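Why does residue order matter? Because the sequence determines the fold. Keep that principle in mind as you read this record.
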Amino acid sequence: MANIAVIGAGYVGMSLAVLLAKSGHYIHILDIDTSKIKKINLKESPIDEIEVNNIFQDKKLNLKLEAAKPSSKAYKNKDFFIVATPTDFNDGSNFFDTSSVEKVVIDILKHSSKGLIVIKSTVPVGFTNDLNERLGTNRIIFSPEFLREGQAVNDNLHPSRIVVGGNCKDSKLFSKILVGISDTKDPEVLFVSSSEAEAIKLFSNTFLAMRVAFFNELDSFALAKNLHAKKIIDGVSLDPRIGRYYNNPSFGYGGYCLPKDTKQLLSNYSDIPQELIGAIISANETRKDFLVNHIKLNKIKVVGVYRLIMKEKSKNFRGSAVIDLIKKLCDQGISVIIFEPLIDKSEYLGWKICKNLNDFKLQSQLIISNRRTKDLEDVKEKTFTRDIFGVN
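Structure:
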């Protein structure tokens, strides 16, 4: 069994930590947030992930898992370091802000002379190689994650693939550890260079964004031409090369990963000719503009926005396309009220929050909702959604 430090108690780090501990490894999960540390040591999940709590509450398991702040002591005698700190896209520099990753890696190298450092945070293509060169080491590799919010444990248990940058003894051992926490028999394991692994992550998410953008533009065409979008999508998706999945129209792709990853991939194309990558990002903005213009045709003064989250059971609206839609509606002089139970204040970014669902329905002349919901069944005649299939 390995001694492993996981740095970052978000979806990536926390889901990996509990599954590694469940498999018998000794886990030290490190975070700068003291409230997260306290929760973890009380066997409570600091993230909205039911399966993490289920593992914590399983009395049959004797998890060897401890949370603490990063320190020289916490970095001692570890076989592996998994770095899962946030890397948001910085619109000013037009690049990922990788400062948290770099700081952690420098601290690890300062306090530990052994142990493979595995970056799980999403980074630009070439970042890992550059970091190895700048810090004079060969201990750092990149291994991407492919997780969904609220499904992180399940996605680690049933990986579509395991990608590991590097082909050394330690990277092969790390791949076996990931296979060991999986419930999938013989999951696909790919050994590539760290730069290739970084590219796999960014191109995967950009392809998903492209697929969202494609079906959204199909839906825009159907709306403009007064055609039945579902019939067109069904006919297109029955081609097995296209498939009947990930084809439900929306207000645009959003969330934490797709917007920032597509922008980062475009930045990596700085000296390479391209049209498609930039068009995906532009298409997402065009979709929102189209929907706002379509909503304006109703000539209403007050639009109610049902939930800032983009899908059912989500507890996070960071990067939500719905927020962009609200901004564009307000720019057109349309008043907006929001029903969002996750917000306990009377305002959010200057927009009115209505806490009572019935009052919200009465005050709204038109209600927009990214996904269909039973909550709006009684007012569906004044509800606008592009959710055709009733799935996230």
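The first strand starts at residue 3 and ends at 7.
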